[in-house]
Amino acid sequence: MAKKKTKFMCQTCGYESPKWMGRCPGCGSWNTMVEEVEVTQTKGPRGAFQHTVTSQKATPITAVETKEAPRVTTELGELNRVLGGGIVPGSLVLIGGDPGIGKSTLLLQVSALLANRGERVLYISGEESIRQTKLRAERLGVTSPDLFILAETNLEMLHNTIEEMNPKFVIVDSIQTVHHPEVTSAPGSVSQVRECTAELMRIAKTKNIAIFLVGHVTKEGQIAGPRLLEHMVDTVLYFEGERHHTFRILRSVKNRFGSTNEIAIFEMLQSGLKEVLNPSELFLQERADGASGSVVVASMEGTRPILVEIQALVTESSFNYPKRMATGLEQNRVSLLMAVLEKRAGMLLQTHDAYIKVAGGVKLDEPAIDLAVLASIVSSFRDKPSKVDDCIIGEVGLTGEIRRVSRIEQRVQEAAKLGFRRAIVPASNLGGWDYPEGIDVVGVENVGEALREIFS
Length: 456
Hints:
The chain is α/β, with parallel strands linked by helices. The protein contains 11 helices and 21 strands. Helix 8 (331-344) packs across helix 9.
């Protein structure tokens, strides 16, 4: 017989306590402890996945046979890249993003592409009725008899439907709406999300079904629910984008079957999401010629080089404390680079406000953009534009040196492909590779040499 007892659980990190506390000791959040009824089963943990019912012996790693995991590719090459080459059968994929960003639209399009090839797909909607899903499918042009729709939130009913249909792919929209009938807490709570994900993981592994989960996000941009949720799944994808832009970025932050930090870029249209095959050209198509404060950098997103424009606006400050604002990159990086300019280049920037922006809504966080950010600040401060056909790459150290960056050959090749005629790179990156035709590669060792070369 099951025994009941109450406990308090943090809705942010999953920390459990026998008594209520105003501040969670696990994550430091306030007023997130909620009372829940815990049902203790005597037969074992509920929803726990066991690979086998018999005990196994330890095996030498050299005796383990391996084989390449089969993948199912879709007609969306951008999605295949983010997933590491395609969908792995038996995998559990979590997709998170802001409301209205296009998560359901993307998965409905993927479901249609798979169903058109004769694969049986089950789309489970916990937020929309069947008619509402049908209306969205008609707008996207989805008309495949192998795509089945189910509006249900009871996990037991979902399990029975999957057992009956035996689909190859399952989409659950969203995991926060699904509830386990044996868990007394409300849908979306830490206990419900954890138990439902564990049960869906067991179904995916035992039946070799690829399952996609849609996850809500918090105000901070993290997937709602316990952090354990991201550890349980095989792949975690974030769907990002600005509300005022039509472009969406699908970013991989965890992938057991491929590389992380890969991105896919889509454009939101009336008929759905469309792939952007050349994002560099897209981000530079509205660049103004001869404008001060505008610099182009070649940034790496996973294994793909992308050319983006960095814009800077430096003006005299009317206050005692000048502003430092950044969009698309870290604000601390801007303050650091301005300090390097003051110390190593002798520029008096402490009386000026600085506003830095990455055009197109892209977020950059790699050190190879340092020299481009620094050059854009100097260009705006001097009101002197850099050359339009220059691409600037390099990391800046606190002593003013220009440090080596990774994948320099791919960055320069992308710049040459889009018609840039000169690339400013670290001097330590000059040897060991062939320069593309039509572009001059110039190496610089410190900030002073770089500024003379850029603005000469």
